Amino acid sequence: MSSPDVPTRGPARSGPYIITGILLGIAIVVPLFVPAYSVDEPRLAGMPFFYWYQMSWIPITSALVGISFWIVSREDRRRREAVRGVTSPEEEP
Amino acid sequence: MSAGSVPLAAPDRPVNGVALAIVILLFVLVAVLGFFAARWRRGEATGLHSLDEWGLGGRGFGTWVTWFLLGGDLYTAYTFVAVPAAMWATGAVTGFFAVPYTIVLYPIVFLLMSRLWSVSHRHGFVTPADFIGGRYGSRALTLAVAVTGIVATMPYIALQLVGIKAVLTVLGVGSAGNVLLTDLPLILAFVVLAAYTYTSGLRAPALIAVVKDLLIYLAVIVAVIYLPIKFGGWGNIFDSAETKMGTVNPATGKPTGIFIPGAASYSAYWTLALGSALALFMYPHSITGVLATKSRNTIRRNAAVLPLYSLMLGFLALLGYAAIYAGTKPIDLNGAVNPQLVVPQLFLDYFPAWFAGIALAAIAIGALVPAAIMSIAAANLFTRNIYRDLVRPEATPRQEAQVSKIASLVVKFGALIFVIAMDQSAAINMQLLGGIWILQTFPAIVGGLYTRWFHRWALFGGWAAGIIYGTVAAYNVVNPVTKANFGGSIAAIPGTNIQVYIAVVAFAINLIVAAILSLLFRAIKLPDGQDITRASDYGADENDPKVAQIQRELPIAEPGGPTY
């Protein structure tokens, strides 16, 4: 006999995870697509495009990860509340 | 001139008194902080007598402390010295890839690390190899991951010493003539570091990281605003870099470096960035930083705010170009050109002595934080996965903490001997190999976070194949100037002439071997190990009960149910 695997979270809704996956996918793939930015012009304050474009992806990635965090933590909270609502009466003997 | 008595005509580097005094002052301040850290947020009941307390700082670091700790842990002194050095010497592909590397790092961390945190929190895992042991029930695979982690970390610690050495050299401390005199300040710094790591554990680098990070931000922000103004704008700086990179190097007959990568360098550039990003959080010291956090979401929140360090690293890399315009001469004690001295020298040349002192101290202290965390991480691996798993399975938490403390000393002195006794390039070569090796633990660790599809022996086979290919391929890279082996981390994909980061090819081979062997071993029904984790463990948060607690309440708990 084995104890049941008490879930820590309720079932996932796929929507938030798909959106997060797309956002994070953009943050991984776009900065690695070198042909899009390995050019000198246009320069920004004397800085070639190659350099300032990549630097500008740092805050963009930060924002994408931040939005992902917001979406996922909301869904996470919902899943935890769902499981607590169902199992807590049974856990209390 | 008595050329006989002084074999290498060292340029007379005057000791910069003011800068040196500032460096020493800040170093002492940080040492005091390191010892004080033992009292910070100390667990009342046990003190520091368990790995959770000594090795993971009580597993209670919140968002702010983690931000400083991981910032200090990942962006090491060597990074601050080596990235601008690479920019100065050979340009964008070897240097600026650090920017896309530290961009794509954070989405990857976001995806992977909270699952690792959850399962480790539930089961009390301290090291990545602990997780492998619990997930696959395989002693061989656990040992492979632990040994890879220790071996990859050792040269990384040694390189932190190289960072301190660069600072001491430009300050005029040490001489080419006397080996002991050259290395005495370094030894002294390391003994102090070892002492407070021993007494305070992970709390010491966590506190010191706050000071170090504030200093380094100050130094970089001031330099990035002041130097371009002084040099007449970024345009001048980039133009001089473009000229240098385009100049033909007489030793190789090729251009000195790459200013903007052409089509032939695309694959090298992005594979270096991606491979390094995948590898970084397989390093034990990164995972130690993750497991020391308070809750499942701490690391995810940090993934959104840590990129601020990447921005700083990007500007710091550009200081390598600024040094080209400035005509900085990074001459080592033995009279040879050492690119690693470029940024320290730049600060010393263009800033008042007191400010240069702050910047140099930031780099030197920046070496202490990762060195401490790395030695703790390696010590934890030794304690949990070699000492406890193989020697004394019944070791108590108190004994584990004691063994780990001693192991951290051994690891640090090993690194010290490495740097003093061997050529600096040996440490750099080993670090290069370490990056290739550590990525080979990725399929077992990350695969295990999501699936038990891979067979434990297949993962072991993949790991071995990746290590062998990576080592051989790296050995075969010959430096075009010195003709030495281990000349770089870029090689062609076998059978093609597409130049890529060796670690990525080794990783692909690893995955393919692991997948094929998994199918084979499942077909012949080779026994797979016992999995003590459950699906629910991977989503657990700080308030969910730990496994020890569940087993107390449900004593007949039988682990190894189906996992998804």
TrEMBL record, chain A:
UniProt keyword Membrane present: yes
Protein name as annotated: Uncharacterized protein DUF3311
Origin species: Arthrobacter oryzae
Keywords, ordered alphabetically: Membrane, Transmembrane, Transmembrane helix
A Pfam family recorded for this sequence: DUF3311
Transmembrane region(s): 17-38, 50-72
InterPro entries: DUF3311
TrEMBL record, chain B:
GO CC terms in record: plasma membrane
Cited Gene3D superfamilies: Sodium/glucose cotransporter (1.20.1730.10)
PANTHER family: MONOCARBOXYLIC ACID PERMEASE, SODIUM/PROLINE SYMPORTER-RELATED
Main location: membrane
Topological type in the membrane: Multi-pass membrane protein
Subcellular location: Membrane
CDD domains, per the entry: SLC5sbd
A GO molecular-function descriptor: transmembrane transporter activity
Transmembrane segments: 20-40, 61-81, 87-113, 140-159, 179-199, 206-229, 269-292, 304-324, 353-382, 403-422, 428-450, 457-478, 498-521
Membership in a protein family: Belongs to the sodium:solute symporter (SSF) (TC 2.A.21) family.
InterPro entries reported in the protein's UniProt record: Na/Glc_symporter_sf, Na/solute_symporter, Sodium:Solute_Symporter
Keywords: Membrane, Transmembrane, Transmembrane helix, Transport
Protein name: SSS family solute:Na+ symporter
